[in-house]
Design goal:
Helices cover about 30% and strands about 20% of the residues. The chain contains ten helices and 13 strands. Bound molecules: coenzyme A.
Length: about 375
């Protein structure tokens, strides 16, 4: 397990991702279904607005959605509530406190697959990090609930960094294992982002879908070959304050209201200035990739595969064009967005999980997720 690369007096370990698991919910929604429901709501809402002299709302359009984002369908935890124009939010019944919560259940579904992939049992794990853009509650941590339900050892904690949540948790897990603080870490990113999406907002209603991903991060024992697994050579996280993707829903929401026992959601769900995010994060993402690779004496050309955040097909194409100096195809940087929508922190890991079987020993790969914060998280991987 221990590698002969002491740094700052600490004996450092080589680290691998030994297992990856993905759970995609069965129900899906096409652009046409989503737009039909949105437009039915606009028709109803505009009757009210016309009567009260308010500005009328514009309709959504599936051709725009495909052109602007590349999304065709998205998978969701619950579809009927989303598509009901009189509701436009998933219908997820509350569970009693002693029942497994939905986020923990969704996390466990991908975690079990990651453990199977790694050939491990829950008792082999000594830390669970549950990292997602939206958590169901602040405490008890979802990771602790997962720990108890699965029977993992040690501890668990929750964290989040927008769409960089999985990459940022990987950054922490890798360094904890590298330094010897933990032996095996389960990083899990259950993204039930439809729970927090404003399906009445034309700008954002089409963007997101639900998905859960998990990774097992562990040390590489000396002499252990682990062919087909990725060694994590390095990780990094970058952040810079921006209000262009923001949610204000939180504990203080009610304190600003006349009636503090009525939650006013209007304006407090996800909002995004999409075109600013597009421009600013494209430039930041390109810079991050080129500088991160340069620190390792690498150029984008040396990387066999890029697993980028799945927010926008045009955005990824542009980041790659800036980085390579020419366009690159989906073999170099696969997309799962068309089928799944933007699954926040999970997207790049789904792309990784589905697109690495053809890679050869020694091939480099770069995971790079970006989003709210702004935030970017990256991991330089090499196939063993
Ligand atoms: N249907 C029809 N038209 C729509 C629409 C919809 N659902 N939503 C917006 N439009 C219109 C706008 O009103 C605007 O019309 P106007 O030109 O008459 O003012 C036009 O389309 C262009 O809007 P814009 O917001 O500039 O679109 P865009 O090309 O930037 O695409 C996104 C929007 C959200 C797809 C895109 O900006 C994006 O993906 N950004 C990055 C998001 C991201 O990376 N997020 C980080 C991770 S979560």
């Amino acid at each position: 397990m221990r590698a002969a690369t002491p740094a700052h007096g600490v004996e450092m370990h080589r680290v691998i991702i030994s297992g990856i698991g993905v759970e995609i919910p069965e129900p899906s929604i096409t652009n046409e279904e989503l737009v039909d429901s949105f437009n039915a709501w606009v028709d109803m809402e505009n009757v009210r607005r016309e009567a009260s002299g308010e500005t009328l709302l514009q309709k959504s359009d599936s051709a725009f959605i495909v052109h602007a984002s590349g999304v065709q369908t998205r998978h969701v935890i619950e579809r009927e509530g989303i598509l009901d124009p009189t509701r436009m939010a998933p219908r997820i019944p509350a569970r009693p406190d002693d029942a497994l919560s939905l986020e923990a259940e969704f996390g466990i579904a991908s975690a079990r697959k990651a453990l199977d992939h790694a050939g491990l049992e829950p008792g082999d794990i000594d830390l669970v990090i549950c990292s997602a853009s939206h958590h169901q509650r602040p405490y008890p941590a979802i990771a602790i609930e997962m720990q108890q339900a699965m029977g993992t050892k040690g501890a668990g904690f929750d964290m989040g960094l927008g769409c960089s949540s999985a990459a940022a948790a990987l950054h922490i897990a890798v360094n904890l294992v590298r330094a010897g603080a933990h032996r095996r870490v389960l990083v899990t990113t259950p993204e039930i982002i439809t729970g927090h999406l404003n399906f009445r907002d034309r700008q954002t209603h089409f963007i997101f879908g639900d998905a859960s991903v998990s990774m097992i991060v562990e040390g590489l024992a000396q002499g252990d070959k682990r062919p087909g697994r990725f060694e994590v050579l390095d990780t990094r996280t970058w952040t810079q304050m921006s209000n262009n993707i923001r949610t204000n829903l939180g504990y203080y929401t009610r304190t600003a209201q006349d009636d503090p026992y009525m939650i006013n959601l209007e304006g407090n769900l996800i909002k995004q200035v999409g075109n600013k995010v597009f421009k600013e994060v494209t430039v930041a993402g390109h810079k991050f990739i080129v500088e991160f690779l340069a620190e390792h004496g690498l150029t984008p050309q040396a990387i066999r595969r890029f697993w980028l955040h799945q927010a926008n097909a045009r955005m990824n194409a542009m980041i790659l064009k800036l980085s390579f100096g020419h366009e690159v195809g989906h073999d170099r940087a696969p997309m799962v967005l068309e089928r799944l929508g933007n699954t926040a922190g999970a997207g790049a890991i789904v792309a990784l999980s589905e697109n690495h079987a053809d890679m050869k020993a020694g091939d480099y790969g770069l995971l790079c997720a970006f989003g709210a914060g702004y935030s970017i998280g990256g991991a330089l991987l090499r196939m063993l």
